[in-house]
Amino acid sequence: MRRKISYPLVALGMVASSLTVASPAQAHGYVSNPPSRQALCAAGTVRDCGPIQFEPQSVEAPKGSQRCDGGVAQWSVLSDESRNWPARNVGSSVTFTWVLTARHRTADWEYFIDGTRIATFDGGNAQPDATVSHTIDLGKFPGRQRLLAVWNIGDTPMAFYNCVDLNVGGGGGGVVPTRPPASSEPPANPPAAPPAAPPAADPPAAPPAADPPAADPPAAPPAAPVTGDPWAAGVSYKTGDVVTYEGTRYQCRQGHTSLNSWEPSIYTLALWLPL
């Protein structure tokens, strides 16, 4: 019996009528790692993002934009610098991974910092894989940076836009806030300390105290997903993890934090491989 494979071209769940829901023609791709701004919205790391939280792969606009939202008002939250976007600490060499929910023929992939193109990768007008990774040397751009990643489609005048906030040279993992924390330096003229009190006389010896009650054992850390466990939303899956969903076993192809309406049967071949 032939296995039926579900391709990732369906809408991403039901939302309120005031929101725009992705249709099959609107499902495309986004940078998942380090997380782009739309990936942070989809994961709930940054809240109140509007419709982009349901369709992070849909920031499509004509080629040539230098904006995080591609110049499309619907996605304008992605260009709002007041949102205090968290930055990922990275080393000087960074690998960017795209998750493609519709694999369009590709002209090229471009990466920009402050409007300057720092890397490009030829797509050969070919259909890419479901996940695509590029490694870029950012050693000339230390500190906090907002990197614009652009996927230029080969057979249309359109492109897909992603901004990724980074702290280059900050090591691997972790995030730093957009705004620096308040200064912890002591005041210029700290008040003088009060004079010390004279030592008190030794108190009488107290009777020996009873043994204190045993402390509660520390709470166990959350368990990692067990091979073959049922798929669940809100779990950080890594490449190679195996889950079950609706009677089918799937292997994770790309590390991600699962979301409702991103079940393995929907994102088959993009995030999950049926076994």
TrEMBL record:
Key words of the record: Hydrolase, Signal
- GO cellular component: a single term: extracellular region
Region (Disordered) residue ranges read 175-229
GO MF annotation list: carbohydrate binding; hydrolase activity, hydrolyzing O-glycosyl compounds
May I ask which residue range the UniProt record assigns to the signal sequence?
1-27
Task: Give all residue intervals belonging to the Chitin-binding type-3 domain.
Answer: 228-275
What is the superkingdom listed in this entry's lineage? Bacteria
* An individual GO BP term: carbohydrate metabolic process
Supply the Pfam families for this chain: CBM_5_12 (PF02839), LPMO_10 (PF03067)
Lipid biosynthesis among keywords: no
Q: Where is the composition biased (Pro residues)?
A: 178-224
Xref: InterPro entries:
CBM5/12, CBM_sf_5/12, Cellulose/chitin-bd_N, GlcNAc_Chitin_IntDeg, Ig_E-set
Q: What is this protein called?
A: Cellulose-binding protein
